[in-house]
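Q&A log
Question type: sequence-to-structure
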Amino acid sequence: DSNSNSNNNNSNNNAEKWDEYNVVFVSNAIKCCPFFRQRATPRNKPREYVCWDYHVFVIRSSKRSNSINSSSSSIGISKTNEKESKTNSTMTKTEVLDVDTWLPYPCMLEDYLDGSFPHANNPELDPNYLPSFRVVSAWDYLKYFYSDRMHMFKQGKWLAVPPKYEPIMNGLEFAQPTGNGLGGKEGGNTRASNLEMYIDMTSESDGREFKGRVLSLDEFRATFTGGMPSK
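Response status: OK
Response body:
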């Protein structure tokens, strides 16, 4: 009926909107990742940095045609220009949504990476301190992720003031017996967080596609800007 069709259309439209968004977990194998221009450092001291065990932000991506050679119009593509238009390259525009940075909000991905990781091209840098990025679709994140934030509660007090909104616990219903410390049900007790699974940069999806994929800094840049990895 018409109501059913309307609901299906709304569901599809919502899914399409989520397709533009990915959640990005940033860490490395030693859980010590230097970040510049974070609000944990003074705004007027851009050379200071903070080392996070992990950090999380959102990216919003959209496709755009290379306007230099584009022959298409808002009405459509003419037959005479159809072949030329098909050969036009498509670039990815990606913005970072990070509430913890002094950089603009939103910020173009290229600018964010350059501003947050200016040390990455230093040949003397220990590569263990380079960031890795686990990219998870927003849809999968909201469906499968869960954390009660208790990793931030030590010795009877919060290490930092928790957000005012409720913890994301949607994924708890999908928790599976694991025994590997990555979340789920162990010994009959349900763990209240699978955060460690997402900030572990040493493992891939291991059959669980909702874990996303792990990318190096150069791979992350190239994948979401369409550009070449930095030298």
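Response note: Helices lie at 2-18, 82-86, 109-116, 138-144, 195-199, 217-225.
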